[in-house]
Every structure is written in structure tokens, then in C-alpha cells.
Write a structure and sequence with these properties.
Blueprint (H helix, E strand, L loop, with lengths): L2 H35 L6 H20 L1 H12 L8 H19 L2 H23 L3 H26 L4 H9 L5 H24 L15 H14 L13 E3 L5 E4 L2 E6 L6 H19 L16 H15 L3 H14 L9 H7 L17 H16 L8 H13 L25 H20 L3 H6 L4 H10 L9 H9 L6 H15 L2
Parallel strand pairs: 1-3
Antiparallel strand pairs: 2-3
Helix pairs in contact: 1-2, 1-3, 1-4, 3-4, 4-6, 5-6, 6-7, 8-14, 8-20, 9-10, 10-11, 11-16, 12-13, 14-15, 14-16, 16-20
The structure holds zinc ion.
């Protein structure tokens, strides 16, 4: 056996270990999907044991000391450079996950899991009671634990600050400094667009969006939207399905990627845009390179890049005038006489209405990122010990006044509206806005490569757009970190220019400013 054969053998062994871990995660998400969609109530106790067991298995598989040995042998092998780019990336990604999983003391991990469960449970009650002082002590404990973990991860990852280590878990190699610079510029641009829209005499009438559409009709709308974006839920070879849950989400891997939506009789647009959004996430996971299945490189690049795909399909395509010039007649057919009196102009303006609100998940395209920027600024300062958990409501309310001009009346509609912090998800929020920023850069590049994409959209033809996204985004999988991937695709560094240009053009047309 030559030296290189040994290298090859160790690499293959490492990959097969990684495959076991990936398979376990797919089982985990399937069991969770079932819990949200189909599980009968009596199964709760059995299900929690099943979930605990699969989590244990995942931990065991990903921290197997043999993985550490194999990584060492591979990286120190004199022929290491004979591995190609994809193989090296796989080794890098496995090492990164292994280091994260093994360097955190098991006690701390268990304590964080336990405290998150307590905190999110208290969060639900405190939110219902509009009482932050109930939530505060548990959140303080959780933040302290997360700070401890972040300090260890900072060492492992070599980041400049603990918060950067948390960002890196979601948006690899991005830092709070980079994001602050982007978000400061984005905030100024968004507030300017928002103010122009609000000052315009041309305001949308949204009243017709609350006309009742029965759930069975909305299900038909979901199917027709899925067909348009080529998300296959009904052919004999379908790799997707749509079910109903409280909050929409996407879960799955390659040939089995499922989405959920929520139907409101008096707000059909909510489900329609959820299907477009989640369908965008699903499209990414289903169109990764087939030959990379079960390899670490065979996954999306980052949370932010994932969000760029969902927001692209939901907003750039799904809320465009061109798409609705095709789809409004379809919608009218599906909904009987309900929308027969609504014109294209009125409809497109209504689904793109700019309304500063208190609640992130109800926000429009222009104000959405302002909600995210507020959360990012707070997290950053919290983890830098510049502010305390006790001060969060006051800072939150002041920032909502300053950025969005809205007055928060109580902490349930304020600092306690999202579940993320109660679950210990810090470093996650900024990825929502980064996704929008990427989507703007991708659009600018697509426009250059395919100037007539809007003509396709106006025929309800999503295929050329999907093919462009697959070639330029999906096919790279997790081969590069986000700053490198956006540069590779567009030739430019991450910047907010294109996203702001897209919004400015779209909203000046809509509002006539
Ligand atoms: Zn999303």
C-alpha cells in the first residue's frame, strides 16, 4: 500500500463516518416534522424519548474520537495537497464541526439544553402575561451560559470576540464588525425609502386582502404556486409535500424536502407567500449537486444564503408586478367572484404595502430588515457586556421608536415577540437581513446574465430563473464560506448597494415618489 492509498483510505473512512452523522440528522428532522404535522397527542412522551435518543446518537457520531484521529492523519499526510478542492473542504467542514462538538464541556452543553427548555417555557407564559420580569431571570441565566460557551468557541474558532463565534455558527467567517458596517448603511437606506413611501399621497388599499377564501381553495392555490416554482408535490416521483403547521417551515434533505404553511381564511396572502418563501428554501436543498449527497459539502452555504433563496422567490419573483400579471387571472379563476373587481395595479400595491409595524414576522419588504438590525445591535452589545438583560425592554422600545417610529405598548409585542432568545439562538438574527442583501446582489447579476427574466416571470415561467439560481448558487453547495461565495458568483464583495437599488426602483414605481 502506497502512502497515497493510506490517505485515500482514511479520507473514505472519514466520509463514511460523516455520512452516518448526516443520516442521523435526517432522521431527527423527520421525527420533528412528524411531531409538528401528524403526531397524535398521546405520543408526546414517547416522542420526547425518541428525540433524546436520536440527539444522543448524533452527538456520539459527531464526537467519535476516531474522527479526530482520521482528521489528524489526513491533514498531516505528506500527500495532503493531492486532495482536490472538494475533498479538502469536506475535511475542513468535518473538522470544524468536530472541534465545536468536542471542545465544549459536556456539562455546559447539558446545562444550556436544560436552561433553554426552561427559558422558552417561561417565555411562553411571560409573553401571555405581558410580564418581562418573569422572563428576565431565566434569560439572564441562559445568556450567562451562552457567554461561557461563546468564549470557549472563540478560542476554538479563533474569532476576535465571543459574539463573532456565535455568528460563525450561522454565517461562517462573518463578524460583528463586517455586519455592523453593512447594517448601518442598510438602515439609512431603508429608513429613507420607508419615509418616502409614507409621505407619498399614493397609498395602497389593502382592505380586499382580508376577503374570505376557504381553506380548501387556499390548498388549491398552494398546489398551483408549487407547480409554478417547480416544487413537485404530486407527481409519482415527487420529492416534496405541503402540510399545515402553526408556523411555516422547511425541513429535509435532497430527495425529501417538505414545507409547511398556515391557512388563515381572512388572509389568503399569508399562506401564498409562505409557500413561495418555504418553496425557495426547498428549491435550494433539492438542487444541490447529486454527487455531493452525504458529503458535508452537499448542503446550503449558510443561514443567510438559505434566506437569500427564500426571499428571492417570495419577494423578488413572488411580489413582482410581472409575476402577478400572470397569476392574478389564475387567482381570480381559483377564487370564484371574490377578486373579480380588483385590478393588477391595486393588487400589486396592496401586497407590497409599506407599513412600519411592531412585529417582525408581519413586516413588509422595506421595513423587515430594520426589525433584524435592531435585534443584531442588541445582541452585539449584550455579548460585549455593554448592556444588560434588565435593560433590554427599554433599549428595544427606544430603537423601535427611532428606526420605525412605532410606540411599543407592552413587552409581549416588544422584546418578547420572538422565540429565538428564549431558545438561546444568538447570532442567528443577522442572517435574515444578510439573506436580503445577498438576494439583491444575486438579482443584479442575474439581470446582467439574463436581461429578459421579467418576461419569463410575466408568463409564469420560473424555470429560467430557477436554472440560473441552481447554476450560480445551489450547485456550489457548501464549497465556500459566504463572503467568498458571493464574490465568486457576483465578482463583488458583500454590499448593500444592489438590494437598496432594487427596493428604490420597485417602491418608487409603486408609490410614485
Ligand atoms: Zn426563511
Amino acid at each position: 500500500m502506497t502512502k497515497s492509498d493510506a490517505l485515500r483510505q482514511n479520507y473514505n473512512k472519514l466520509l463514511s463516518k460523516s455520512k452516518e452523522f448526516i443520516l442521523a440528522t435526517t432522521i431527527h428532522s423527520l421525527v420533528e416534522w412528524d411531531m409538528e404535522t401528524k403526531m397524535p397527542p398521546k405520543a408526546v412522551n414517547l416522542r420526547s424519548q425518541q428525540l433524546a435518543m436520536i440527539s444522543q446518537l448524533e452527538h456520539k457520531l459527531s464526537t467519535d474520537p476516531e474522527i479526530g484521529d482520521l482528521i489528524e492523519k489526513i491533514r498531516k499526510h505528506p500527500d495532503y495537497d493531492s486532495l482536490d478542492e472538494v475533498e479538502k473542504r469536506n475535511v475542513h467542514l468535518i473538522k470544524k464541526n468536530y472541534d465545536e462538538m468536542t471542545k465544549l464541556p459536556e456539562e455546559l452543553v447539558t446545562e444550556i439544553t436544560r436552561q433553554s427548555a426552561v427559558t422558552v417555557n417561561v417565555w411562553k407564559k411571560a409573553k401571555a402575561a405581558k410580564n418581562y420580569s418573569m422572563f428576565k431571570p431565566e434569560l439572564e441565566k441562559l445568556v450567562e451560559l451562552k457567554k461561557k460557551a461563546a468564549e470557549i468557541l472563540m478560542e476554538v474558532k479563533g474569532t476576535a470576540t465571543p459574539y463573532d463565534a456565535l455568528i460563525d455558527m450561522h454565517e461562517p467567517t462573518m463578524t460583528a464588525n463586517m455586519i455592523t458596517k453593512l447594517f448601518d448603511e442598510l438602515r439609512t437606506g431603508l429608513i429613507s425609502i420607508m419615509k418616502k413611501c409614507l409621505a407619498s399621497p399614493k397609498q395602497p388599499d389593502e382592505s380586499f386582502l382580508s376577503r374570505k377564501i376557504p381553506v380548501d381553495v387556499q390548498q388549491k392555490i398552494s398546489s398551483s404556486i408549487a407547480k409554478i416554482i417547480d416544487y413537485d408535490i404530486d407527481s409519482p416521483n415527487a420529492g416534496g409535500r405541503i402540510d399545515e403547521t402553526e408556523h411555516p417551515f422547511t425541513t429535509g434533505y435532497y430527495d425529501d424536502v417538505r414545507i409547511t404553511t398556515h391557512y388563515f381564511e381572512d388572509n389568503f396572502a399569508s399562506s401564498l407567500f409562505s409557500v413561495l418563501h418555504e418553496g425557495g428554501h426547498a428549491m435550494y436543498d433539492q438542487n444541490l449537486r447529486a454527487e455531493w449527497m452525504f458529503q458535508p459539502v452537499g448542503t446550503g452555504c449558510s443561514y443567510g444564503f438559505h434566506e437569500s433563496q427564500s426571499r428571492f422567490v417570495e419577494n423578488i419573483f413572488g411580489r413582482s408586478r410581472e409575476f402577478w400579471s400572470f397569476y392574478l387571472p389564475e387567482l381570480k379563476k381559483l377564487t370564484g367572484k371574490t377578486y373579480s373587481d380588483v385590478t393588477l395595479d391595486k393588487f400589486v400595491h396592496a401586497i407590497n404595502a409599506v407599513k412600519p409595524s411592531k412585529i417582525r414576522v408581519e413586516a413588509d419588504e422595506v421595513t423587515y430588515c430594520l426589525h433584524v438590525i435592531i435585534r443584531f445591535n442588541i445582541e452585539r452589545d449584550l455579548f460585549a457586556d455593554k448592556i444588560t438583560v434588565a435593560e433590554l425592554p427599554e433599549i428595544w422600545n427606544q430603537k423601535y421608536k427611532e428606526y420605525l417610529g412605532v410606540k411599543i405598548e407592552n413587552d409581549s409585542e416588544g422584546v418578547m415577540q420572538d422565540t429565538h432568545w428564549g431558545l438561546g439562538y444568538f447570532g442567528y438574527f443577522p442572517t435574515y437581513a444578510l439573506g436580503n442583501i445577498y438576494s439583491g446582489q444575486l438579482l443584479a447579476k442575474m439581470q446582467k446574465d439574463m436581461p429578459d427574466w421579467k418576461k419569463h416571470a410575466a408568463k409564469g415561467n420560473f424555470q429560467p430563473i430557477k436554472q440560473w439560481l441552481t447554476k450560480n448558487v445551489h450547485s456550489y453547495g457548501n464549497l465556500y464560506d459566504p463572503p467568498d461565495l458571493i464574490k465568486k458568483i457576483t465578482g463583488e464583495q458583500i454590499n448593500v448597494k444592489h438590494y437598496l437599488e432594487y427596493l428604490n426602483k420597485k417602491y418608487s414605481d409603486l408609490y410614485g415618489y
